[in-house]
Amino acid sequence: MSDAVLTRENILKVLDQFLDPELGRSVVNLDQVQDIKIAPGRVTIQLGLTTFCAPLWDELAQEVRDLVRKNLDSAVEVEVKISEFPRAAEKLGQIGLKAKYVVAVGSGKGGVGKSTVAAVLALGLTRAGCKVGLMDADVYGPSIPHLLGTEERPTLYEGKIVPIVVHGMRVMSMGFIVPREEAVIWRGPMLHQAVQQFLRDTDWEDLDYLIVDMPPGTGDVALSLSQLLPVSGAVVVCTPQELALLDAVKAIAMFRKVNIELLGIVENMSYFVCPNCGTRHDIFSSGGAKKKAQELKVPFLGEIPLNMAIRVRGDEGKLVDCFEDPVLQPCLSALCKNLVRQIVEKRRASPPLPSLSIL
């Protein structure tokens, strides 16, 4: 095609096909196309996107480039500049939490690295530019404070709990309130009340994602969360061996029973690569979670290797440093991107309905 087709009007018609990753509607209709510059053989598009999809900005820019070349001029050079398009989160459910998406991270049993994966997801999304909160709902065994290396105590301001800010994300845990050596001995109603207070009375501000570290098993917390607010989706963590997969299947069944959509399965401690000889060892078997995900028609989000650096940095409260590790960084970043990719695909396939205010 000739450069004559490269008009602002034609480019806008093409961009009308590009759906906003958060709302699943045309970026043209949402006024997110901020500028278009046309020069001989070159088009520059300034596009506004929310931080909700920040981990995928590079991929989304490529999607726009491909769209313009395919529909207008395959030879044209297309530059896509993405800047933040502010859009506040709406309140979720009766609890009034302002978050665009709530991700519950669970497992059918303990000891599979669920809290580590929850913290990794929260850290990875924050580092990519998302506004993230991390809630430790594992009241009986809160691990998040230790993994993040903080022992601060939350304060109160104007009747709200001020969460601890760690590495740019807002964090709340029973571990900030109860001394490390003391046990929490509560029955179901008290557990429900604690979860409710963490959600309702904490000043989470305006979040893209609230990551909830669930306790292991299929008990009260999942029921409480499903009753208190619309949890958007769940991630199930397991290790590759058959015994762990049996419990992971139960966790998947639990989330489905309370109508929480499955975003995917993560296989933790997937394999071990010897640092001396480079040989791969499948200590707990390998690929079991991916196979089970296919059987249950659940997305597979990725593998995390059995790596000493995760254990050492977790014990030191420096889990965030794993994102600087040349071995771990690619798989951890891919895990976060795969999670957001699943969410964006679902949003685009079934856009959330706009809220209507009743006067």
From TrEMBL:
Spell out the InterPro entries in the cross-references.
Answer: FSCA_dom_sf, MIP18-like, Mrp-like_CS, Mrp/NBP35_ATP-bd, NUBPL-like, P-loop_NTPase, YlxH/NBP35
**Which keywords does this Swiss-Prot/TrEMBL entry list?**
ATP-binding, Hydrolase, Iron, Iron-sulfur, Metal-binding, Nucleotide-binding
Q: Where does ATP bind?
A: 108-115
Cross-referenced CDD domains, in alphabetical order? Mrp_NBP35
Recorded GO MF terms: 4 iron, 4 sulfur cluster binding; ATP binding; ATP hydrolysis activity; ATP-dependent FeS chaperone activity; metal ion binding
Q: Which SUPFAM superfamilies match?
A: Fe-S cluster assembly (FSCA) domain-like (SSF117916), P-loop containing nucleoside triphosphate hydrolases (SSF52540)
Boundaries of every MIP18 family-like domain copy: 8-80
* Biological process terms in GO annotation: iron-sulfur cluster assembly
Assigned protein family: In the C-terminal section; belongs to the Mrp/NBP35 ATP-binding proteins family. Belongs to the Mrp/NBP35 ATP-binding proteins family.
Q: What does this protein do?
A: Binds and transfers iron-sulfur (Fe-S) clusters to target apoproteins. Can hydrolyze ATP.
Kindly state the subunit structure of this protein.
Homodimer.
Kindly provide the name given to this protein in its UniProt entry. Answer: Iron-sulfur cluster carrier protein
Taxonomy of the source species? Bacteria, Pseudomonadati, Planctomycetota, Planctomycetia, Pirellulales
